[in-house]
Structure to design on (570 residues):
């Protein structure tokens, strides 16, 4: 496993604030990993994302992305490697058509025209939005807009894709489709794409290889989704959602039923209940 | 104030008589019971937001009529006639924080009451009470609303509507984009308000847990029209229909359905307590006679 992102003792406070938004943050993310970041509103998740993209510079500590140290000098190298998609699909469009929009970032970076056309097509193909290439972005659904936003990022061939609550505004169908899309991208690009998804959606976080919990500016937990989501008390303490199967286990315990301690998915708990009831 | 609401064969077209004409609603007929909590569900683009804009007199039906209390609204109604009625109606738009505009939080929340004729003192009292309800502390009153977090901005925008003490409170996806705790707190606030003031609440949401937990009545939209309405238990009972409409169901119901596929049949499961009670009975070897 090769690290692609490392933070060492990073602290950041906004200029108008005396409390740091992130405190003494040290962590490593490996090349090709899909990491979910969870934490209540205001815990510092977006600040973390902005530091990775050098939209903000750390007050203390050091950040390296793909062996490049995040400094003002390396700012553009860093930004080319780290692509971001934000929460509100409506604030991310500049082009008159979907294809223009995807081309925009490349125009700014002086990518030659032929190359640009190839990349626009490839990126739209990747997010299954090719049939919409000539449409007006404003007329797309929320989920389609987010696909286009991802295509615009992919066209710049980043090494890291950050989704900052990119599914938060979508309806359940749009959300499921986005998660499926990230699975497909990962299947295609393998270790060439590292994904960081900041989310409140348990299904999205459970799809990741690893989950990190940020609480009030500090990294308080890192683990497999099964480890992090099995700890209902801790999730509640951090103001986070508890998976349904874990909630049900708690309710059964309260009713005097002995349930397995280890983490169970919905399917896992259904199977356990079925077996237990069948043998009654 | 009587605020029973009835839609009778309502149709609505965006930009009618232009090349851009888009159908928003067609053949919409349903009722919203007075003093109850009604949930409106359906896929994105099914017409939910277009429907609630009729309730606030923001748009007039292109065809058909909407009756609210003793006010009848048709294509011919003059918007001015609706001013009196609008003073009793509060609409929280989708992403209401986009509409904050005053210099301070307190002024923003006072705007509504003042606009409908309250004195400075009354408006301030109403604003402070509403801010307290949404848990915005007094040290934020003089801040610019734009210096708040997303969740705080949403609360301030909601306080602006609550401050007008509406008899009909309409909430268009009020919790979208908030963290789980923020969502729970707002839902508790809305149900408390509904009970305390006996007002009519109309909530648009994709979260079926809330529908199962809080709603007295559910209206389902699809492709610009109402395809079903009734009590939550009725709406979520018809599995085949829900599946055909690709509607989500509450997590507890999903879980019960997964058990049913394995041959374990439970009855009328909408929330986690009903699920846990029945499962505990089975696991304790009690025979279930429901
Ligand atoms: N531009 C800003 N100026 C001052 N404080 C900010 C700014 N942006 C965010 N903050 C504060 O920094 C903290 C972390 O915010 P953020 O990283 O946006 O959290 P999250 O993304 O987890 O919701 C919060 O307390 C927030 O109020
Ligand atoms: N301002 C508008 N102009 C034209 N068409 C619109 C406008 N707002 C909504 N529509 C269309 O009306 C239909 C219903 O939309 P809407 O009421 O917003 O649905 P929902 O709130 O259920 O997602 C959709 O086809 C949508 O594209
Ligand atoms: Mg954020
Ligand atoms: Mg809507």
């Amino acid at each position: 496993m090769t690290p692609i992102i490392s933070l060492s003792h990073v602290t950041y406070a906004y200029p108008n604030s005396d409390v740091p938004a992130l405190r003494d943050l040290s962590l490593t993310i490996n090349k090709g990993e899909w990491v979910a970041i969870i934490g209540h509103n205001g815990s510092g998740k977006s600040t973390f994302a902005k530091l990775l993209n050098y939209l903000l510079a750390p007050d203390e500590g050091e950040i390296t992305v793909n062996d490049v140290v995040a400094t003002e000098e390396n700012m553009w190298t860093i930004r080319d490697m780290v692509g971001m998609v934000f929460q509100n699909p409506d604030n991310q469009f500049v082009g008159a058509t979907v294809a223009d929009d995807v081309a925009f970032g490349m125009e700014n970076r002086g990518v030659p025209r032929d190359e640009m056309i190839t990349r626009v097509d490839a990126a739209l193909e990747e997010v299954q939005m090719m049939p919409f290439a000539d449409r007006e972005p404003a007329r797309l659904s929320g989920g389609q807009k987010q696909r286009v936003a991802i295509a615009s990022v992919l066209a710049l061939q980043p090494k890291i894709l950050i989704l900052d609550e990119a599914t938060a505004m979508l309806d359940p169908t749009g959300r499921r489709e986005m998660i499926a899309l990230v699975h497909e991208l990962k299947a295609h690009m393998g270790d060439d794409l590292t994904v960081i998804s900041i989310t409140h959606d348990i299904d999205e976080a459970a799809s990741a290889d690893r989950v990190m919990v940020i609480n009030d500016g500090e990294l308080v937990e890192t683990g497999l989704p099964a480890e992090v989501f099995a700890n209902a008390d801790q999730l509640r303490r951090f103001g986070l959602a508890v998976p349904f199967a874990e909630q049900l286990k708690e309710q059964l315990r309260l009713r005097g039923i002995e349930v397995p301690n280890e983490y169970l998915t919905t399917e896992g708990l259904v199977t356990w209940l079925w077996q237990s009831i069948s043998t009654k | 104030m009587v605020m029973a609401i009835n839609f009778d064969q309502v149709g609505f077209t965006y930009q009618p008589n232009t090349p851009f004409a888009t159908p928003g609603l067609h053949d919409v007929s349903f009722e919203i019971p007075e003093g109850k909590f009604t949930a409106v569900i359906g896929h994105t683009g099914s017409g939910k937001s277009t429907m609630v804009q009729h309730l606030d007199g923001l748009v007039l039906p292109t065809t058909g009529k909407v009756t609210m209390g003793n006010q009848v609204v048709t294509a011919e109604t003059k918007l001015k006639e609706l001013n009196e009625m609008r003073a009793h109606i509060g609409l929280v738009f989708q992403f209401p924080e986009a509409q904050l505009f005053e210099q301070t939080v307190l002024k923003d929340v006072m705007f509504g009451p003042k606009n409908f004729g309250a004195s400075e003192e009354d408006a301030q009292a109403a604003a402070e009470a509403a801010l307290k309800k949404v848990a915005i502390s007094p040290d934020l009153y003089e801040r610019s609303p734009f210096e708040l977090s997303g969740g705080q901005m949403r609360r301030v925008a909601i306080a602006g509507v609550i401050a007008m003490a509406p008899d009909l409170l309409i909430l268009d996806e009020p919790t979208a984009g908030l963290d789980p705790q923020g969502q729970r707190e707002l839902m508790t606030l809305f149900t408390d308000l509904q009970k305390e003031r006996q007002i009519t609440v109309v909530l648009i949401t994709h979260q079926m847990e809330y529908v199962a937990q809080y709603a007295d009545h559910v209206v389902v939209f699809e492709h610009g029209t109402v395809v079903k309405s009734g009590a939550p238990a009725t709406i979520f009972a018809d599995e085949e229909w829900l599946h055909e409409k690709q509607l989500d169901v509450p997590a507890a119901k999903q879980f019960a359905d997964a058990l049913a596929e394995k041959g374990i049949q439970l009855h009328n499961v909408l929330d986690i307590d009903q699920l846990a009670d029945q499962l505990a009975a089975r696991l304790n070897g009690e025979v279930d006679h429901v």
Notes: The beta strands of chain B are 5-14, 22-32, 37-41, 63-68, 71-73, 89-92, 168-172, 200-204, 217-222, 225-230. The interface with chain A takes residues 43-45, 95, 149-151, 176-182, 206, 246, 248, 251-252, 254-255, 258-259, 262-264, 272-273, 275-277, 279-280, 282-285 of chain B (CB under 8 Å). Residues B 14, 22, 24, 42, 44-50, 221 surround adenosine-5'-diphosphate (ligand 2) (CB under 6 Å).
